[in-house]
Design brief:
Number of domains: 1
Bound molecules: zinc ion
CATH topology: Beta-carbonic Anhydrase, Chain A
Number of helices: 11
Strand content: 5-15%
């Protein structure tokens, strides 16, 4: 029947129950013990939950938490939260990051610092040009569906060398051309727009990569059921300010 199997509910539980021990394999891969307590209900030591429990945050509140942290960073009011030895020990038992980020690998965009967050707060994937490859999408499926991040932000930044390379074109050594290839559609889309060509392409690239993340049925279903918000952000290297752009 048409459409009958189109929408198969994908839940954290279904992943954990997945055939051939998929859940167990995923846990082993990332070293997360966030949901092991459910598998071992009698083990109280393992069942300890992080005190900074973000489980009840809404996607809007999670986004606001990021924005508040960036405001503290920019305004020299940093709290450097969740960076104590106690927090280290706490999150060693399980992680519940409230946010997930796909950001450029650029050394000037250290995610936890610019959002004034600490250990166990943000699930981060960094890759030059903040491109959403299959593996990046898979990582964020894990960060959102399994670990429970409520907001997923794609971050581009001013003077991004990867986007600049895509604009300039030409021959690239090694595998660098694969980055350029992933960014090229954004460069093409932003051509002819008024304003700064590089900034336009950087913002178009954020939107393009966010759309690629939303192609994932796991991520799009979380968005449709209002369990997750996917947004784009632009980081200004000069001011340290993140602007939400989509
Ligand atoms: Zn960059």
């Amino acid at each position: 029947m048409p459409g009958q199997s189109r929408k198969r509910s994908i839940s954290r539980r279904s992943i954990l129950k997945g055939g051939a021990g998929v859940g167990t394999a995923v846990v082993g891969w990332l070293g997360s013990r966030a949901f092991i307590p459910k598998l071992q209900p009698g083990n109280l030591a393992v069942a300890a939950e992080p005190a900074d429990d973000n489980t009840n945050l809404t996607p809007a509140q999670a986004l606001q938490k990021l924005i508040d942290g960036n405001n503290r960073f920019v305004e020299y009011r940093r709290q450097n939260p969740n960076q104590t030895t106690a927090r280290l020990r706490e999150v060693a038992q399980g992680q519940k990051p409230f946010a997930a980020i796909l950001s450029c690998a650029d050394s000037r965009v250290p995610v936890e610092l610019i959002f004034d967050q600490g250990l166990g707060d943000i699930f981060v994937v960094r890759v030059a040009g903040n491109i959403a490859t299959r593996e990046d999408i898979a990582s964020h499926e894990f960060g959102t569906l399994v670990l429970g991040a409520k907001v997923l932000m794609v971050i581009g930044h001013s003077r991004c060398g990867a986007v600049e390379a895509a604009i300039k074109g030409g021959e690239f050594p090694g595998a660098i051309g694969s980055l350029v290839e992933a960014i090229q559609p954004a460069v093409d889309r932003s051509k002819g727009q008024s304003g700064n060509q590089l900034d336009n392409a950087i913002k178009a690239n954020v939107e393009l990569q966010a759309k690629r993340l939303l192609v994932s049925p796991v991520i799009s279903e979380l968005v449709e059921t209002v369990k997750l918000k996917v947004v784009g952000g632009y980081y200004d290297l000069d001011t340290g300010r993140i602007s939400v752009i989509s």
